[in-house]
DNA sequence: AAGCGGATTTTTTTT
DNA sequence: AAATCCGCTT
């Protein structure tokens, strides 16, 4: 990064004492007494900017100007001379957020902001710290950062080395455990024995330790280590911790609700000394609990940092009245929250619409029609987003958009550097750069296929382990023996010669030229050119992009660093398109019009989230709904379908409880079949949420299971074997199903499932044994009584 | 060593 | 329905 040349700045002498009282600082403060950057802030925002000393928690609801507060606060610290740019630690979660913040600070106070060398993600800052003190935690400063795939490969090796059946105890699962431990700041020695023992008959802790040992041998770390090793470093070397505590006069954290325990500990160590820690976040937007984020961190802030100032930003500058009230009403149903009430001075605007569709295809069709109508009214497509709960919902919507010729773009998906072709290309470069990189070598030794399969690799491994040398070294030895069959032996020899040649090349050619050559001569480019699958062209495109982007870096080392932590696909596509993404990917974005399909029980709230995390899971799902709604500036449109195919099977579904959580005055029901009438649906849920009944096997699975195993007669069923609370019946049936009067034993005809016999009546839901389709639960409006 | 076919699995995703 | 994985065959 560019270092600031503007003025003397104690950037590299960590021991240099702060200079807030210095003449230069005071002089600089005097230059800008008016602080023009503070203009236009509302009182709360201004308070958040000016409360520079001590712990501060800024609870910033959606659309309340959070980023503005954060950037202005940094500008304020610098402009008033309270700190040099290099003395401010500013942490974000994504590189994108870090980049945007840097840009915005620059636009407020100019290029001084370039001197903020400690603005970045937890991981990039952790990397920086570790590289400086690598030897103290048993690494060399040029350690490599492993991606998920390398990690998995390594774990497989560890599991096998311990003589454990990888099929019974999959590496993926172990990776999950280790990841979880690292998220919680636990090293191999700190994991509770009972917990570690749950994996592989008590070998969990041992595998964790073995994995860490292997990482050290390879001079590698995984993402979790970037934080964990910092913790260890600081705990074991208080003098070094002190240097950092002195350096970081002010600390800021964005999206605090997403921090995990390790990150919390990391921050706490640093903040202990000066306590100038400002955390900005929104407990109502915590949606990453499933990957270790602890909402508790934000809920407990005042407790953890006594004397903390808490500032609430509740003025929303994004959405119109109805949307905001709908979102507020929804989130108010959550128990565990600090409580904020968003308000707007904007007009009420359109109500949030709720549309019932017959099935998911119908739903996609309705959305497509509305988009076309909006487009016809000159609504820019780039201001329209469709937010889904799970990626699987995208396909049908994409199909529809393609049919209609509506241009769209999918946001999210696999990251550029996670793609196989990029990882492969990088692996080649890693081996050229550092032949001892076993993981990289193993990855590409047989890509493209050269006939060096498992058997050959095994031989290499055996020698490498016996002689305690890297695989490449072992390979050099083996090709001189006759241990391998002639063919693989010759192939391997050729490959080694190639690597030698490429390494020489890198002395004279530029990095990107070397990459180009390696990819061509190794046959890698060729492999994709011969590939006839649909995405082969895209992959070649990505490889080109990779080679091109290398030109911007002085050496391979810094490029690899960049790529393992930062690199993203370039999204410089400015064409007019509708955006399609998951709700998770939508956080932080906003659009004029937002479509929210799939608000059905089981899908959203997601059944699995409920099964695995109970009430906490439900609340996180509700926060997700809240995030979805608050993405909309002027129009939010909710959809649900009565039939949806899940894993290839048609299921009839029931509107999400979140639909019922919306205040009636802020919504309008469109095209809803009679029985979806809003007032009624809130009273006749299939199964009101009540802890115990939702605990384990998912309601739907339980339902399905019951349907398939319980083939007893009516008597058993009629005698009230229905689990869970008793539902209000009768009244609504009479009201909504009018003359139909469905009764147990009656014959009905369903548009999709054909004829069947009613097994049970439950409000406006019927359990029907269909002649062809088996037992299903359907809404009575979708069947006709048969004579 | 590689490729086919049956079996199994199926959320959300950053670094 | 689809994609991925695993094991068996060639």
From TrEMBL:
It catalyses: Couples ATP hydrolysis with the unwinding of duplex DNA by translocating in the 3'-5' direction; ATP + H2O = ADP + phosphate + H(+). The keyword rRNA-binding does not apply. It is an enzyme of class 5 (isomerase). Residues 39-320 form the UvrD-like helicase ATP-binding domain. Residues 321-588 form the UvrD-like helicase C-terminal domain. ATP binds at residues 60-67. Residues 18-28 have a biased composition (Low complexity). InterPro entries: DExx_box_DNA_helicase_dom_sf, DNA_helicase_UvrD-like_C, DNA_helicase_UvrD/REP, P-loop_NTPase, UvrD-like_ATP-bd. Residues 1-10 have a biased composition (Basic and acidic residues). Residues 1-28 are annotated as: Disordered. Keywords: ATP-binding, DNA-binding, Helicase, Hydrolase, Isomerase, Nucleotide-binding. GO terms for molecular function: 3'-5' DNA helicase activity; ATP binding; DNA binding; hydrolase activity. It comes from the Bacteria. Its EC number is 5.6.2.4. Has both ATPase and helicase activities. Unwinds DNA duplexes with 3' to 5' polarity with respect to the bound strand and initiates unwinding most effectively when a single-stranded region is present. Involved in the post-incision events of nucleotide excision repair and methyl-directed mismatch repair. Belongs to the helicase family. UvrD subfamily. This is DNA 3'-5' helicase. It comes from Microvirga aerilata.
